[in-house]
Structure formats: structure tokens, C-alpha cells
Design brief:
Layout: H1 6-20, E1 25-27, E2 37-39, E3 47-48, E4 54-56, E5 59-64, E6 72-73, E7 93-98, E8 106-113, E9 120-128, E10 131-140, E11 145-150, E12 156-163, E13 187-195, H2 204-219, H3 223-237, E14 243-247, E15 250-253, E16 258-261, H4 266-269, H5 280-289, E17 312-314, E18 323-325, H6 333-341, H7 358-364, E19 374-376, E20 387-392, E21 398-402, E22 413-415, H8 425-441
Antiparallel strand pairs: 1-11, 2-13, 3-6, 4-5, 5-7, 7-12, 8-11, 8-13, 9-10, 9-12, 14-15, 15-16, 16-22, 17-18, 19-20, 20-21
Helix pairs in contact: 1-2, 1-8, 2-3, 2-8, 3-8
């Protein structure tokens, strides 16, 4: 009689827990196809008290730290008819909960920033029992777009929007509009929808959990070949690219093991350089001197050479090595981000979302102030010391230009992550799988 080994029973249980435990996620789309409740403000008065808020179809919305009084202007013209908008801006933030305090399965809304001139952004926090489980900054517009949150482990959504990159519920990058309490928050919302999320891509934790369950099933039949196949599959699926919004204006790439500054024009945002444009030596000095998020090891992105993924080569002669350039260069850090994570295609702007997956769109939303122009690399071409590599977010081309002859924008990157992770679920699931395989290998 076949008996499943004890370690595989434990492995399957751990995998089931990993698979059923959901993590909060962000989406730039309406992810609630059949809502159990909708709040659209069409029956709201022109002006009403945001602190009191509204309860509609099981959804509760309030304005916290607001100006007080009739501070919500539903007839502002923003959104699809009437909407939730702090009249002339305030210094508060918007909170959305379910009546009764249950966790959200998923929530979508159409909204943006009432600050009329770009760049604009929307800061969000997802909280559970008062503890923030996910936060970040998303690009926003005056005319509005869809935002969605899913995962089931949060019972509160907090929102604040303005000009520039908003990085907290009390952050005021615009300097305010001069009204009461500086008038920094201009977040407007419409068509709030709650319910179950449409089918979303499985996170890496779920894939590993499925692998572990498959290992347990196969082990009861043909342990040797079956588990060897599962192990190979685990290696193949465990290396999926992932960008993780760490909040505070930083995005971690767990494939390249680097952290990006989410503001791709921070030199202008911080008033370091007019329009953020610098020569390459100036951009290099800016990144080297940057102190951000408590880290001082920022640099310009690197350009890997040789890079066989590039579409073209150049032979500089005089004993210098072949230079790899053109399109589809994924050996550089900016090229990898453009093509592997943001859905970029050769000859197309990074802002062109045609054909992009939901994950690629969500990845791009982690960044702000990305211009469709060339950005400096920190790598010096082998052929000529006066040149520097560049990468174009306009069409995905990698090329060189004079270090002092052009003024381009720059983004900063640093090695490693910006948080300490202990027993991350994907790592734990993979570890359990490998331990199980090792135990099987020792059996006679």
C-alpha cells in the first residue's frame, strides 16, 4: 500500500496555506466585474460635510483632517457626473471602508487629481486593523483613470492626490494652493465598486504552492522521475520577474536585485537641476551624492557589455571590443526594465500600453515622471572615453552620446533591497520543496 511520506504531507499543507493566503495587490483597471456595492454620488447634494461622509450600498467614505463644514463638492464636474472632491482642495485624505468593518475582497474606483497641471500622483495606503499592509504612489491625471486593489487582507483604503509625487498622507510636494491648511490634497473619486475581483494572474507564491502540491501527488506514484520533473519546473517558474513597490518612492527589482528611485525626474522634483536635465558628469555627481530613504549608495543605471540581446553591433576598431547597441537590449538595467517589466517594445514609447499585460501596466504605475526621452547610463563605452551610454524611453533604443555635449535626464538606482525580508512566502515554499526532494534522494 502506498503511503505519502510525512514530510510531503507537511509540504502539501504548507503549500495549501501559501496558496490560500492572499497578498494585497494594485491594478490600473476596473477589477470588480460584478460589484456587490457601488457608490457613484449621483444623489449627493452639491456640497456636503466630508467628515460625516456617506454610506451607500455597504460602502462608507469619509474625509479625514479636512477643512470641515461643507467641504466636499460633488458638482465639480470631475468624473462621470457627480463625484467626491474636496472643494478647492484641503490638507486631508480620503478613507474608504465597508459598513461593518469587514475586509475587502477587491475595490475599484475611477479617480484622479483635481490639480489641473501635470505631473500628478495618487498616494494610497491599504490597512488592516489600522496597520498599513501596502502603500505606494501611482501616476494620476486630471481627467481620471481606473484604480483597483485586491487581495483580501485589508479593510481600509486611504487616498491623497496632488501635483508632483505624493509620498504620504500629509505630504505636500506641490507647496499647496494657498487655501485653508495649504490645500495640498485634490484626490477625487467616482464609481467606487466593491466585490470579488476578476481572475488575476497567480503570484509567484501560488505557483510554488501548486508545485509543492504536485510534488506530493506525484510522489505517491512514481517518486523518482516525477519529483525530478517538478524540481526542474520549480527552477523554471521560481525565476519570474517581479517589481515590488516598497513605498517611500522606491521600487525593488527582485531579479536584478536593485532598487529604483520611482521618480524618474527627481533631479527636478528636488530642485537640483532645471527640468532635470544635466550633462552626464553632472548626473553622475548627482546620483553619487544622493541621500534618499536613508541610503547613500545611489548611482546611475549600468549598461552591460557585451549584450547579445541587442539588435545591432558596432566595431570601433583600434583594438577596442565590439559594442552592442540598438533595440531589445535587456543586458542593461534600463533595457531590462523597459522590455521585461514595463511591456516596452522596440520603436514604441514606454507610455504606449497597447498590448501590455495587467502586470506590466501595474509595474509602470509604480513610477512617476517617466519622460519619453533619453536617460543617462553610468557606464563608459570601451571605445571612447568622451562618450556615455544612453537609453531612450521614447523607443527603447540603447546608444551613445557625448558626455558633455548633451543635457539629458537621469534616474537613480542602488544595489539590493530596501527592506529586510524574513521567511518571505515564495522562498519558504521553495525551501520546503527542496528539503522534501533532498529527503527523497536519501531514501533507499
Amino acid at each position: 500500500m502506498n503511503r505519502t511520506p510525512r514530510f510531503l504531507t507537511g509540504l502539501a499543507l504548507a503549500a495549501t496555506l501559501a496558496f490560500t493566503a492572499q497578498a494585497a495587490s494594485v491594478h490600473l483597471a476596473d477589477i470588480v466585474a460584478a460589484p456587490s456595492g457601488v457608490m457613484d454620488f449621483e444623489d449627493a447634494p452639491d456640497l456636503f460635510n466630508g467628515a460625516i461622509g456617506r454610506n451607500t450600498n455597504g460602502i462608507r467614505i469619509q474625509q479625514l483632517n479636512s477643512d470641515g463644514g461643507n467641504d466636499i463638492w460633488s458638482a465639480s464636474g470631475l468624473g462621470n457626473g457627480r463625484s467626491w472632491y474636496p472643494d478647492a482642495g484641503d490638507n486631508g485624505w480620503t478613507r474608504i471602508r465597508l459598513v461593518g468593518g469587514a475586509n475587502f475582497e477587491a475595490l475599484s474606483f475611477f479617480g484622479g487629481s483635481g490639480w489641473i497641471t501635470p505631473p500628478q500622483s495618487l498616494y494610497f495606503e491599504l490597512a488592516d486593523d489600522g496597520v498599513v499592509v501596502l502603500s505606494g504612489t501611482l501616476a494620476a491625471t486630471f481627467t481620471g483613470s481606473w484604480f483597483g486593489f485586491a487581495g483580501g487582507d485589508f479593510d481600509e483604503v486611504r487616498l491623497r492626490a496632488s501635483q508632483g509625487q505624493v509620498m504620504g498622507l500629509f505630504d505636500c510636494p506641490s507647496g499647496g494652493a494657498g487655501g485653508v491648511n495649504s490645500s495640498c490634497n485634490f484626490a477625487w473619486l467616482d464609481d467606487i465598486r466593491v466585490g470579488a475581483a476578476v481572475l488575476l494572474p497567480l503570484p509567484s507564491t501560488a505557483w510554488l504552492a501548486l508545485l509543492a502540491l504536485l510534488a506530493a501527488a506525484i510522489s505517491t506514484r512514481r517518486q523518482g522521475a516525477g519529483l525530478a520533473a517538478v524540481a526542474a519546473l520549480a527552477v523554471a517558474t521560481g525565476a519570474q520577474a517581479a517589481l515590488i513597490n516598497r513605498g517611500g518612492g522606491m521600487v525593488y527589482d527582485d531579479v536584478l536585485n536593485i532598487t529604483w528611485l520611482s521618480d524618474w525626474n527627481y533631479a527636478q522634483t528636488s530642485n537640483y537641476a532645471a527640468f532635470g536635465r544635466m550633462t552626464q558628469p553632472d548626473a553622475h555627481d548627482w546620483a553619487q551624492a544622493l541621500l534618499y530613504g536613508g541610503y547613500d549608495d545611489w548611482r546611475l543605471p549600468s549598461t552591460g557589455q557585451p549584450d547579445a540581446s541587442c539588435s545591432a553591433t558596432h566595431e570601433p576598431g583600434f583594438g577596442f571590443p565590439t559594442q552592442y547597441l540598438g533595440f531589445n537590449c535587456t543586458g542593461s538595467e534600463m533595457g531590462h526594465l523597459f522590455y521585461a517589466d514595463l511591456g516596452g517594445n522596440a520603436g514604441e514609447s514606454v507610455h504606449d500600453a497597447t498590448g501590455d499585460t495587467a502586470q506590466e501596466i501595474a509595474n509602470f504605475a509604480m513610477f512617476v515622471n517617466v519622460h519619453s526621452f533619453n536617460y543617462w547610463s553610468g557606464t563608459i563605452p570601451d571605445s571612447f572615453a568622451g562618450l556615455r551610454w544612453t537609453f531612450s524611453m521614447f523607443d527603447g533604443e540603447q546608444d551613445t552620446t557625448g558626455a558633455n555635449g548633451s543635457t539629458l535626464r537621469a534616474v537613480a538606482v542602488r544595489p539590493g533591497d530596501v527592506v529586510n525580508q524574513v521567511s518571505a512566502p515564495p522562498t519558504l515554499a521553495l525551501l520546503l520543496l527542496l528539503l522534501g526532494l533532498a529527503a527523497l534522494a536519501r531514501r533507499p
